[in-house]
């Protein structure tokens, strides 16, 4: 039975697409069958270097313009990692029963389904949150992201999700010196979610998006996502904070 995990944030620019992509890749490396679904915007096809091969998207599958399997694309050479893209230029729209049918049809084929969705969109409360088993809020270490993340956290809790985790993304090496927020515990308390990963600011991640070798991580970042995947799978791994 697939575990559905919602990857979301309260504002743009926190890097939830990058987190979704690298977490999915790390889970697939552990021989888990993983499906990434873009719920509200499209970018992962570019990150995985498959944009020119995608024909059908999530809206096509929901509207019956294609078979659901036609919208599922392998992410390059990663055998255990697949993607359903969001439509380009318009928002994904379907009713709750159709969305549940989509998840039901996918259920037996994957171990993890990661749904990436914008926490400010109506689909979060109408479709994605009510059908998710868990949620990960991606936040950068600043006060604006903290406030936006708390709004989303309250929405998720209101939708019945009890397991809400926090991924702190783009933590700079100068964090202790600049102190954009008092400390990470402050961020955890304000968003009201249990910390599951701290991802360092790593420019090689974004640089890799436009190269022939997408998802090329620095050693520290790679270890962070490997450990992130282990914690998602229920294994106790100490947090790596650099």
Mean pLDDT score: 91
The beta-strand count equals 8
Low-confidence stretches: none
Helical residue percent? 25-40%
Largest sheet geometry = 8 strands, mixed
The helix tally amounts to 10
Instruction: Write down the secondary-structure element order.
Output: EHEHHEEHEHEHEHHEHH
Q: What spatial form do the alpha-carbon principal axes imply?
A: globular
InterPro entries: CobQ/CobB/MinD/ParA_Nub-bd_dom (IPR002586), P-loop_NTPase (IPR027417), ParA/MinD_ATPase (IPR050625)
GO biological process, one term: negative regulation of cell division
Domain CobQ/CobB/MinD/ParA nucleotide binding: 5-210
GO molecular function, one term: ATP hydrolysis activity
Could you explain how this protein is built, in words?
With 242 residues, the protein is of the alpha/beta class. The chain is built from ten helices and eight strands. The chain has an eight-stranded mixed sheet with strand order 3-4-2-5-1-6-7-8, with helices on both faces. Strand 3 (73-75) and strand 4 (78-84) form a beta hairpin. Helix 1 (16-29) packs across helix 10 (219-232). The radius of gyration is 17 Å and the shape is globular. The N and C termini lie far apart (35 Å). The mean pLDDT is 91.
